[in-house]
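REQUEST ID: PR-0412
SUBMITTED BY: lab tech R.K.
PRIORITY: routine
TASK: structure prediction, single protein chain
INPUT:
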Amino acid sequence: MISIVIPVYNTKKEYLDECVHSAINQNYKDVEIIIIDDGSREDVARWCDLYAEEDLRVRVIHKKNEGVSIARNIGIEEAKGDWIFFLDSDDFIEMDAFSQIDSYEKFDVVAFKYRTKEYEKSFTSDDYYDMTIEINKKEQAIQLLKGMLINNDVTSSIGFSFAKLYSLKFIKKYNIKFKAGISFREDTIFNISIFENVSRMLFVNKVVYNYRINSDSATQKRDEKCKENSEKLITACEEVLAGKYMDEYYAFVIWQLNYVFIKDVFCKEISSNKKAHLKNILKYEEYRKAIKNVKLQLLSKRKKILVILLRIKCYFLLNLLYAV
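STATUS: complete
OUTPUT:
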């Protein structure tokens, strides 16, 4: 059986309908659908209850708002299936998503391709998804972990928790959970523990997941909480890595710093005091250590330039870098 876990927080009705019905209408019928209502409005909570009335395989758990990580952890605790599949409430899956489930029994994790809402092409560029392949050596899994931290083009989406079947027995054996209090890239922290312990993983050249891009999250729209959220993420990453893979960890920190610069310091909504704001962000110790210690060959061209400019304190040229 597959446990499909859907955290819900004030999702649009049309998106929620498409999401839940894509789970209910699977060709493979041995599923349970666990909707975690994470403190939604009364009308959204009622919609969730109506899905349970519509299909006995749907269970709804209402709770106060504590974030997607805790919601998914409740899903893990409540799941009764052999597999667990995380589905975001504004996304949806193909009707034949699990049609080959009988051939996955020997794996800890099965990863699929996904596409954007536009459907025309696969959203991921990951080479691992260009064919169906098995990962069955510890060294291969660790390379995936390192690629996830670097966030390179080859392994750019491997850190996502969606579009993957996880063996529930495997997750519970190693007590793998989402880190509470992390609201950005929380699945990266989750998958670090996955890849450190996985024995056999399968990449399937099949699109099963439809990822909806939120138009409100445009690149130039300011995120005032991104500094705080990124620092929480970096702290969680440092804790779970416990001193391992430091080269890749520093590259991960630079990736976060680049994100903060894009979403805060150099976004169009900030027109003055950029230098003061930048210096305030660079007070964070992990940023300073990463700028000093990161290996440039692990970084993309833009991030290399970023680090070089920060090392020589040539801050005024950063405006040009982020104007591109």
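NOTES: The radius of gyration is 20 Å.
REVIEWED BY: pending
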